[in-house]
From TrEMBL:
Residues 287-296 have a biased composition (Low complexity). InterPro entries: Kinase-like_dom_sf (IPR011009), Prot_kinase_dom (IPR000719), Ser/Thr_kinase_AS (IPR008271), Vps15-like (IPR045162), WD40/YVTN_repeat-like_dom_sf (IPR015943), WD40_PAC1 (IPR020472), WD40_repeat_dom_sf (IPR036322), WD40_rpt (IPR001680). One of its GO terms (cellular component) is phosphatidylinositol 3-kinase complex, class III, type II. GO terms for molecular function: ATP binding; protein serine/threonine kinase activity. This is Protein kinase domain-containing protein. Pfam families: Pkinase (PF00069), WD40 (PF00400). Keywords: Nucleotide-binding, Repeat, WD repeat. GO terms for biological process: late endosome to vacuole transport; macroautophagy; protein targeting to vacuole. Coiled coil: none annotated. The keyword DNA damage does not apply. SUPFAM superfamilies: Protein kinase-like (PK-like), WD40 repeat-like. Residues 271-286 have a biased composition (Polar residues). WD repeats lie at residues 603-644, 702-745, 916-941, 1068-1082.
Amino acid sequence: MGNAAPRAQPQSVLDSASQYRTFLMDYTPRSMDMMFGSLIGDGKFLKSISCKCDEGHLVVKIYRKYDERESLTSAEVALRRLALAFSVEQQPNVIPYADFQLSNKYNVAFMVRQYFASNLYDRICSRPFLTMVEKKWIAFQILRALEQSHAKGICHGDIKQENVMVTSWNWVFLTDFAPFKPTYIPEDDPADYNYYFCAIDATRRGCSVAPERFYGKGSVSMSGATGSTPGTGGINSMKTPDAAMMLSRMADSEVTVEEVDKQILAMGMGSATTTGNPMQTPPLTASNSSAPSSYSRSRREGSLLESMDIFSAGCVIAELFLGGKPLFDLPSLLKYRTGDSEALRYQLKKVGDPRLEELLLHMLQLDPTARLSASGYLAKYTSPSGLFPTYFDNFLFRFLVLVLSRGGKVPDARIRLVCKYYGRLVREIAGVEDPEGEEFFKLRLKEGYGSDRLATATGGDQQTHVAQRVLEELNQTIPTKHDKQKAERDNSAPTKLQKMKEKENDMRGLSSTLQKKKIEKLHDQFNALNQKKSNSLLLGYAPVAAAAAINGGVTPGNFGSSSSSNGPGSSSSSANGVSSSGGYPSSSYRNWQPRKNVLVAELAEHSGAVTRVNAAQDYSFLASASNDGTVKIWSVRSLQHSVNQGSRCTYDGQGGVITDMKVLTNSHSVASASSDGTVHVFRVDKVNSVGGNVQTTGLKELRANNSAVMAIDYLNNVTESLLLYATRDGKIHAWDLRMRREAWTLSISPELGYITCITHSLDVSWLAVGTSRGFLCLWDLRFLVLIRVWRHSSHRAIHRLQPCLGLPNTLPLDETSVPLVFVAAGDGEVAVFDLSIGACRAVFRTLEAQASEAEACKCPTLLHVPIPHRSRSVLGSFLGILGISTAFDEIATSPLSEEPSVRAMLCPSLHLRGIGDALITGGEDRQLRYWDIRNGKQSYTVCGNGEAKSFYDNQAPPNDWWRMSSSASAPKRFDEMPSVPVSTAQAITKPELAWSKLSPPLITVCQDSSFYSSPGGVAGAAASGAGGVESAISMERRGLVPPSPAHTDCILDLTLVELGSSQNPSPMLVSSGRDALIKVWK
């Protein structure tokens, strides 16, 4: 994890809260609804996000892989082992990551843990400030947390103030274990340290990394394994570059120091006299042996040692008593590493306690072997007159563990425990008696509810009962193995809890002695089940995997999915594509392609053309919009069955023809646009797992001023949730769904045509619209400025726009820094344009079998339109008077076109990250085509061509592909003036000069011999009646032809849904057409 070098990871403009919100939608936790809260940590290595869920708040840390070949198997194994090793009952001061998942769609990984309101750094700086005894109590718990962790053989690796969480009652939790971070880092290059260990708050440059974890060019710090300190001679004193390089290779090997000496003597480099224990392999982070060597980090991955955690904890405790000020920064720590300890001694004099100063000096000494363990420090400094009072260990710590484990998440239960043991608390901590206070809290308990009230209202000697109960509770151990197994076998915890409550109420008539014993037993079982119920969200791993991990048999195959499981011991592949045999995405995603002519379902409830189909981001439902004025909701899970394929709900509260529809991301809300000038936003509720009926709830109605709404889009960023809708009069309105107001309005000149489609970048930095006359406009959304206007060389309408994530002939950074867009315009072709300079980067074209080579290799261009400075002369200098008149005539008539153009377009990688680079198109030819972007010869026709043959091949572009002169020969309307002056052979425009320096575009051609693309086409067939004599003869030769599953009219939209089980997900292609049908393809 983090195997790519920090310098190799580009600064991406996509690293924003909006992008991480999109990433988070691909995280699939178990049985809970999670909502994005805020970005609380914008570190270089991990991004921290606060999320809301049914159980409260969670923290999701996102790691972004910049190298697709990087394997996170070792990190996954280490983190899952941590979650299995720790429990609240046995390690009450430790909170590991509760879940780890890899994304299906994106190169990111998720780590999830409980949310805490403040860390130690926040608590030190907050009022009321900590008193001296509170600081000692927190320091005591930090050492306790280390003791609990080291007892399991687990080291933290990155202890600092930000990773020590403090509750409102000063209970300490040690979080964010870092087994995936490097053990050793270079001292002469701060890049690794700043990337992995620098605090989130860049202004606080504290460094708490143990000095033995740094190594230099001529020396390798092996003190963590050998016991030597920097600057003490031995191996560390060697300055020979060859020796340092050899030690760099040996840093992770299981060799003893004596063997290292022999190796050095054999090389003739002198001798080294260093003694110590042999180096050990990392217990948690396995090296990435599967990754290529060129992608492995040049770092030392050695074993984390307890002494390293002790030093880091010493820094944190010192900072606690110094008011939060860093004890070391990186330069001062490296100076201290050389043996200069004067600055440290001067700083520790400020703590004002000789015993504390002695503790810190001992924890921060350079020799790691001289440092004690956490339990050793607790035993040495806990005494009646010592640094830590004895009641810290004898009573207070044990009592608060009881409050933590028994009180659960109910504050009232914790208060009842404090009331019950008030007398003992006062005696142990303050050393005084308070009988009046004890009596007061007893009366309060009688007014309460639950087993506590019953226990204090049983009559008899209540004071004796409370005293006995205090001792029994404090001395009670965790539930027995039999009790745990019994609780695990019960799948209905709420029912059992209710039965126990009823039994408690029945105990009122029993004798006092029997009642006490039975109530205590029921109370224990009640709280045990409550604890199990509260932990079911964060812990739920298979018992077999847990046993294997604890017994040391931890392998990737021991772990199944943390989000779903077939049952106890299940280790099948999870819904996120991580199989039990590794950490890579499922091959079913990476190699997925739609199969030829395999129809899964056909939905035929609409009575008009189905213009749009769109699925919810969690694939809980599919929405379809039609010209019949309705939006229908379908259950995605029912699509894989041969029965029960009817729609679950129909929204018909909007008049007119539905022109566009979109399911809003991060929600179950749907926005639909109509020709009557309205936009409706409604929510889909009660979509159950079986696929039952749902209902829709209207949220908002937006109305344009006497103009039809042609297209809609949805932008979701940190501050705004914007619904964009474009009207026929050229206005683009942005409605903020959160603030319930119009955020801004853009407009285009009517001479350009009406808006037909809208798209935006993934980071919501730019917006592109296409028009009915082939114009393409680009806005910078940061400043709401129109920055580019082009016209497609075909002069045809732009039917679809969609962002492109990258091409083989572009640089890897292009997908994040260059706006690449798929543009569907012209005769049966889709082109990819670089909107920064208007250059064509790829073409996917369909031609008839008799097409010439010149038609196959031509490249469409975007003709630049200068943006005028005055609003009254909008585009007048370009179109001219005759051109403007023609434009108005075209807009007024707008006949229905029968040209074989592409009307539907889908980029699968925008839906599922693991799918290879591809494009799926459909249009007037009624055929679905799968275009392999990287290898055009692997493209094929999914359905629609019957027995006709389609040949796919790569076509080389002409040498002067970058010339715009070819646009002059484009077909012009009968009364339209030329768009631009024809370029001469000598003159080269600035755009042409820029394009000529780029690599040639990729051209993939499909030569189709189907009936639709044959000469004469539909008209010829109609003229010959039943298809002509040749058609009748061919039909007779073929015999009985099965019915085609393809659409019988133009395909208007495409989308992807995910069917199948969580262990075996199966993406499906959904198409809709003018024939009023929705088809699902496997």
